[in-house]
Specification:
Purple Acid Phosphatase, chain A, domain 2, binds zinc ion, globular, alpha/beta, 8 helices, 6-stranded mixed β-sheet
Length: 241
Amino acid sequence: MRLAVLSDIHANLAALDAVRADLPTVDEVWVLGDIVGYGPRPNEVIAALQAMGARSVLGNHDGAAIRLVDPSDFNPDAHAAISWTADALDDNARAYLASLPEVRRDGALTAVHGSPRDPIWEYIVSTAVAAANWAAFDTRLCLFGHTHLPIVFAATADGDAHAVAGLPGETVAIDEGRALINPGSVGQPRDGNPAAAYLILDLTEGAAEFRRVRYDVAATQRQMLDAGLPPRLAERLSYGR
Ligand code: ZN
């Protein structure tokens, strides 16, 4: 059983297209929310995910774009982008986002955007926050996004967590014990590497392979500026920040 795990696509169609072209054969595609927000092609990204049969959860930007989540905590650029997105969404995209669960559970896997105990908002940024979440899900593995940083938090025998960075091209063993796994961001990486990030999760082998794919960043930036989205959001894609 092999899954592709994508998160934080943020309406970046050029990045998603590059990931789709790079994808090996997989049994399922899981998407960890923030499908829209920041980027210029929300409807096209949602249509692509529908065509892939993706199994998605709701992110804070997705909820805000359909007024399900209060965006008052968003910074001014994120807020401007969400207002633009809310206006840009077509009926199909709006209905798709409205259909997404906050938590998806299937077999050995739980999937959330933020964290198991606060699926929309909590950032799992430290071993302490990871450890505080072990009790909030009952599967062996949990997939999460939201921080845009590829990482595995593995449970230790004493109930704590230890972090393993998801470095480009590296495979992390997840064959034993519990783990929280973040594939990084397809559409707005923040680890200093502008290439789109995603994960291949081999549940049979117990392996998480962190992949990076270069995409046409300039094409997305042009689309953003043409749409009137904040220039700073376009600029950051060049640096992966
Ligand atoms: Zn995000």
